[in-house]
Amino acid sequence: MSVNRVDVLERISAILDGHCMDCPIKKNFIRASRGHLARIDRYCKSECSHGIKLQQLGGMLTCRKRKSVQWEFEEGEDANDLA
Fold it and tell me: What's the predicted TM-score (pTM) here?
C-alpha cells in the first residue's frame, strides 16, 4: 500500500499541533532541565506515545535519490583545501 507524502505530513502536523504544542510533560522538562533539549528529545522519542507515532510517520517519508556531485580541483588544490 502506497502512502501519499502529503497525507503523512498532515498527520505529523496534526499530532504536533494537537498534542506536542501544549504538552505539560514537555513544559516540565524544559523548566527542570533549563533548556537541555536532549532529555526532552529522548523522552519524546522513546516513551511518549505521540512521539513514537511521529517517529513511525517520519520513517514513512522518503525522498528522491540525490544526484552525486563531482568536484573538480584546480592545479595545486586538493580536497583538504575546502575544509
Answer: 0.65
**Residue 3: CB partners within 8 Å, gap ≥ 6?**
60
Residues whose CB is less than 8 angstroms from the CB of residue 61 and which lie 6 or more positions away in sequence, other chains included: 5, 8, 9
Counting DSSP H helices and E strands in the chain, the numbers are: 4, 0
What are the domain boundaries of the chain?
5-60
21 closest CA partner among 45, 49, 50: 50
Q: For 9-36, what is each residue's pLDDT tens digit?
A: 999 999 999 999 999 988 888 888 776 7
CA-to-CA dists, residue 5 to 1, 18, 23, 25, angstroms: 13, 20, 26, 30
Q: Map grid coordinates 586538493 to a residue.
A: 78
